[in-house]
Design brief:
Length: 303
């Protein structure tokens, strides 16, 4: 689970407790549209760093689904829309976190009964022997029913130029289960934009079921700094103004020289962990280290 997933889960639990104390109905017990629960999840979504285009797309989808519910209540034709989605973008850009929130959103809209997330990749779907792959896929789908099945690096199921690969068996089984359980399952496939386009375009079955795309961009240097500050707050650290400037310069250099494997949020987490190790090496030389000293990250601590 990503570091921001922990923060989101803690905040959701806090808000649920507040709702309970206030006497309002607990949104986790609802099976239909629940405005209070939806508002809580959207607040978590909107508090994520960056990804404004993704937030806008999700809010548009929510508004569309709300109107479809109203149309249904008034006896009007309900325009069907696929909720299966493709998350395109580099690693560390919050795709898993957003997928988790999407499950909660669908739950609060009354679309999914549980809204939980089951995360997997090729290794969780594909076996090494004929017939076993279908069994693995069936088991994963069963665990994800009434929620979201999130397949990271999904393009690995159909390696370019490969023949007789068990990945195709996984795709075929998944497509059948998606059809059989279309009212109880949302599937989100994720990976690099170019590879995901090739993956979807190469299979007519995938094309027909996945036509909703969300694009996740690399975090800009100032956004990387915001993520670092959020990790600091979560772990009771704080940055001096000079430390912020040192970090911003570092993130700017890393962003400017980024390649396809640029780590984004994961990169920030790694730098944070190395930084607090360096802080510890600095502080251990002092006697009588104060709470303030332990909380403060100095410029020389930055990894």
């Amino acid at each position: 689970m990503a570091f921001w997933d922990n923060e989101i889960e803690a905040e959701l639990q806090r808000m649920k407790a507040e709702l309970k104390r206030s006497g309002k109905k607990n949104y986790t017990d609802q099976s239909d549209l629940n405005p209070e629960g939806l508002e809580i999840v959207l607040e978590q979504l909107n508090n994520l760093v960056g990804m404004q285009n993704v937030k806008d797309e999700i809010n548009t989808l929510i508004n569309f689904l709300k109107i479809q519910k109203l149309r249904e209540e008034k006896g009007l034709a309900n325009i069907s829309v696929t909720l299966h989605s493709v998350f395109c973008g580099p690693p560390g850009t919050g795709k898993t976190t957003v997928a988790r929130l999407m499950g909660e959103i669908y739950k609060q809209l009354g679309i999914l009964a549980k809204g939980h997330l089951v995360e997997t990749d090729r290794s969780g779907l594909v076996a090494g022997y004929v017939g076993q792959t279908a069994i693995k896929v069936d088991q994963l789908v069963e665990s994800a029913l009434d929620g979201v099945l999130f397949i990271d690096e999904a393009y690995a199921l159909a390696p370019e130029g490969s023949k007789n690969d068990f990945g195709q068996e996984a795709i075929d089984t998944l497509l059948k289960r998606m059809e059989d359980s279309r009212d109880r399952l949302v599937v989100i496939v994720a990976g690099y934009s170019e590879e995901m386009s090739r993956f979807i375009d190469a299979n007519p079955g995938l094309q027909s079921r996945f036509n909703k795309y969300f694009y996740f961009e690399n975090y800009k240097p100032n956004e990387l700094l915001k993520i670092f500050e959020k990790i600091c707050r979560q772990n009771h650290f704080k940055l001096t103004e000079t430390s912020k400037q040192v970090l911003l310069k570092k993130f700017t250099e890393l962003y400017t020289n980024r390649d396809k494997k640029f780590g984004n949020g994961r990169l920030v987490r790694n730098i944070f962990e190395k930084t607090i190790e360096r802080q510890a090496n600095r502080l251990v030389k002092f006697s009588g280290v104060s709470k303030e000293m332990m909380m403060t990250i100095m410029p020389e601590d930055i990894f």
